[in-house]
């Protein structure tokens, strides 16, 4: 009997990674690549996907059983019915200022849709540019469509910022009268079978033609799966931006907060515009590593930075006009990096405190993933600031996406049984 393998592909803001596991969850192959044309350009995503599939060993490719995709939550593009992209995507952290009266009328009583960071704001920009006969698809959903050669579907978690209500299983009622209602995807729950790989791709990459495509998830949800976070713990994803995740008993509807369902549990999430991205504006990875060795994490610098990657903040507080504070800059580069770490730790603390106000509990331990999880000095500064144990996980986001593909083995094999046809 041939072995069966399960693949997860994750698309971040700087590049993509693939992880392939067996039924025992053992990692058999992993690879990564950077985007050729930058994050906004969807061609970069496809080139990365093609490269990662091509570089996968033949023996694994011909025995792939299931594959799933995760991507940045909130990155939206417009495409044709045949999946042809119309220009660049709008990134998850881009502010989109649209007509307030129009936005308010469509958002109705759903406050988070009024945010210039919302998927609705991005959708209105794209509709204004390309018209209302397009498809609106998020990063993971568009790439999933490429694998299927069918762009009808969207995974529920990736579409929350666009207005999908996971708890009720529907779009806002105000969407029913929109001329671009048909631009929205048919929603499918995460981790469900939605079809087989299209024959042309199977032949091109010598992939098992029976490979099943599994509805994916957001990158932070995939990180949550990879880290195997329990109900008393919290997850911090320290990538280009900082994302915090924590278990809740029931959804909470409030600006700057998302409610996802992961393996049947409700997960509270918040994404800041601060993160490793601000560090890379000043230092290379090698410089950060060297300068970090000069930091004494037990000492305070006396600086009070607000190290946002750009103007505007989404979480812990939704403040689109908030400006970064990165001055005065000391002469010492190591002192400057130290102060940036402190500023990021303070934003994280405020995030956990916001969660505590909403849920009544503070995590007993924080599990950290992402590039920032590898820095021991930053971890010590975070632990000094937040005052609870912090540990790092070496499991990648794509590994969590592969686990999602594997978990679908026990799901229904009916191709359309998990799709919401409320459009």
Commentary on this structure:
By secondary structure, this protein is α/β, with parallel strands linked by helices. It is built from 12 helices and 17 strands. The strands form 4 sheets. Strands 3-2-1-4-10-9 form a 6-stranded mixed beta sheet. It has a 6-stranded mixed beta sheet with strand order 13-14-12-11-15-16, with helices on both faces. It has a 3-stranded mixed beta sheet with strand order 7-8-17. α7 packs across α12 and α10 packs across α11. The longest helix has 27 residues. About 1% of the residues have low confidence.
* Cα-based radius of gyration, to the nearest Å: 21 Å
Order of helices and strands: EEEHHEEHHEHEEEHEHEEEEHHHEHEHE
Structural class determined from secondary elements: alpha/beta
Give the integer mean of the pLDDT values: 93
Query: Which term fits the overall shape?
Result: globular
Tell me the strand order in the biggest sheet.
3-2-1-4-10-9
Largest sheet data: 6 strands, mixed
Helix content: 25-40%
**Strand runs, count:** 17
Report how far the terminal alpha carbons are from each other: 43 Å
Low-confidence segments, given as residue ranges, are 413-417
Beta strand %:
15-25%
Quickly count the helices: 12
């Amino acid at each position: 009997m041939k072995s069966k393998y399960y693949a997860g592909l994750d698309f971040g803001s700087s590049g993509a990674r693939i992880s392939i596991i067996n039924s025992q969850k053992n990692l058999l192959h992993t690879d990564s690549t950077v985007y050729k044309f930058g994050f906004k350009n969807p061609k970069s995503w496809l080139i990365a996907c093609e490269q990662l599939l091509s570089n996968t060993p033949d023996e694994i490719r011909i025995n792939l059983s299931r594959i799933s995709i995760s991507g940045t939550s909130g990155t939206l593009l417009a495409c044709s019915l045949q999946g042809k992209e119309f220009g660049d995507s709008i990134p998850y952290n881009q502010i989109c200022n649209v007509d307030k009266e129009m936005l308010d009328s469509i958002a109705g009583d759903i406050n988070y849709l009024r945010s210039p960071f919302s998927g609705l704001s991005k959708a209105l920009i794209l509709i204004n540019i390309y018209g209302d006969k397009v498809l609106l698809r998020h990063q993971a959903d568009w790439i999933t469509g490429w694998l299927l050669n069918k762009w009808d579907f969207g995974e529920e978690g990736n579409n929350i910022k666009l207005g999908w209500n996971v708890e009720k299983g529907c779009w806002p009622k105000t969407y029913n009268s929109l001329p671009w209602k048909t631009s929205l995807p048919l929603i499918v729950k995460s981790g469900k079978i939605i079809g087989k790989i299209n024959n042309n791709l199977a032949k091109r990459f010598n992939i098992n033609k029976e490979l099943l495509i599994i509805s994916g998830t957001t990158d932070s949800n995939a990180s949550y799966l990879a880290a195997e976070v329990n109900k008393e713990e919290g997850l911090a994803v320290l990538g280009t931006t900082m994302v915090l995740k924590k278990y809740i008993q029931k959804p909470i509807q409030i600006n700057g907060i998302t409610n996802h369902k992961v393996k049947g549990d409700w997960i509270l999430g918040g994404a800041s515009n601060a993160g490793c991205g601000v560090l890379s504006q000043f230092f290379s990875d090698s410089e950060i590593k060297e300068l970090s060795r000069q930091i004494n994490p037990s000492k305070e610098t006396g600086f009070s930075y607000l190290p946002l990657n750009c103007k505007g903040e989404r979480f812990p507080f939704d403040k689109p006009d908030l400006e970064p504070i990165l001055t005065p800059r000391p002469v010492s580069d190591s002192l400057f990096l130290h102060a940036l770490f402190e500023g990021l730790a303070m934003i994280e603390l405020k995030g956990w405190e916001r969660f505590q106000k909403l849920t009544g509990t503070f995590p007993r331990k924080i599990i950290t993933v992402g590039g920032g999880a590898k820095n021991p000095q930053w971890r010590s500064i975070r632990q000094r600031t937040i005052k609870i144990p912090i540990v790092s996980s070496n499991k990648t986001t794509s590994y969590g996406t592969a686990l999602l593909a594997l978990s679908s083995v026990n799901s229904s094999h009916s191709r359309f049984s998990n799709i919401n046809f409320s459009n």
